[in-house]
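Dear all,

This email documents one entry for the complex benchmark we are building for the journal club exercise. For each entry we list the sequence lines for every component of the assembly. Then comes the predicted three-dimensional structure of the complex as a token string, followed by one or two observations. Please use this as the template for your own entries, and keep the labels exactly as they appear.
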Amino acid sequence: MTSASVRQRASGAARSPGSVTAATHLARLHLISRRAPAALIALAVCAAVLWPALHWRWGAGGAAGQRQLPLLIEAAASAVIAVTTYNPFGEAERASGRWLPWLRLGTALALSATAAGLLAVAATSGRLPGGVPQMLRDLAGVTGIGLICAAALGGLLAWIGPVAYAVLGEFALMGAWTSPWMWPARPPQDRGGAICACLLFAAGLALTTARGSRDRADD
Amino acid sequence: MNIDVADLTRKFGRHQAVAGVSLEAGPGVFGLLGPNGAGKTSLLRMLATVIPPSSGELRLLDRDPGSHESRREIRRRLGYLPQNLGYYPGFTVAEFVEYFALLKDMPPGRVPRAVATAIERVDLGGRARAKLRTLSGGMLRRAGIAQAIVNEPSLLLLDEPTAGLDPEQRVQFRALLRSLGEQATVMVSTHLVEDVGAACTDVAVMDAGRIVFRGTPASLVAEGTSSDTGDAPLERGYTAVLAQSRQLAKTRS
């Protein structure tokens, strides 16, 4: 094989004379390496499950009972976002240049926005207790927990946080807990719950941007 | 000096992995030998700016990696092959190397040529479009070396680069190391003393977190005698240095 043909082959993956094209290409490669396409499918599945869940006639339990299944679906979407923080390249990537923090932030924000959009669309024709604002609050808070979990435990274990919080949230809904940190049990206009959820989302994004997910046990 | 280290230490909990290493290195190929658990990987991880030192002074490429701006510039000019290189199995070899070229802020116009050159230098030209999941262990290692050299780094850190390579590939790799060492500082951590003898201009032996020998491969050979363990002169020198350092440590304690 000649060097020219290798160059031609390699340039098939990198036809990027301009910096904008290069940045776009870098973002595309980063998203693929984080399995973002699979994450998009998983988020679409979450939205597809939410739609029938909202049309299901719930028996006893009132508004709190009707929140239980949506909360689980929101937690599943958050877990999907958190797991995409997994860095398959390990330390070689961490020792690279300045773009990495922005790529991590962009991925987390893009997937969070997509999840919010898909779930909001799925909720439009159904009766979502608390409406879309409550869904956005809950999704943001639980995603924050997932991102914090990724920084502490690693990307592959990041689902533990959202799942654990969803279980707690179910108890909170049944027991009508009042702590603002258990925002799923609080009404949509509750300021304390919204502040707590936003704080966790901001903390999760900051950790994801600055550190990314944990690669090794001794980090 | 591309590497300038004084009294560097690193602790993991109560375990002291690196215990007061001082080291200077300019252009050339620097071999880092030592038994398992000697602290070679921890030292390389600090030099790669992946983990901060617990104490001591560290300057890389005449910059202090403690500051954010300097660390960014160091990483742009750094190549690093960790002991356990991860990869995304769906990437082709070209995409994998290109991803790192773009991450390291290479001028976009230079990327395609740099990617092709790096892939050719590790003799993977024929597999540039092969998915990483289809490659053998040795080929993956070579793809890892390609990502480390794609930005023509001034400081190249390779942790066990020849693990998984067959003898012919190892000989080729030593030639590549010698060529890279003409411009850059190349630090190679390895168990294979013959790689050091064939490719390195300088060598250090680490044991229990400390550097117990620093010199040329020829001076390491001179440390050994026919009564020392080893099949080759360099192996005998290596085992002699380790035995002396352990004897000294025992006497001190």
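Observations: Chain A has one domain: 18-210. DSSP finds nine helices and no strands in chain A.
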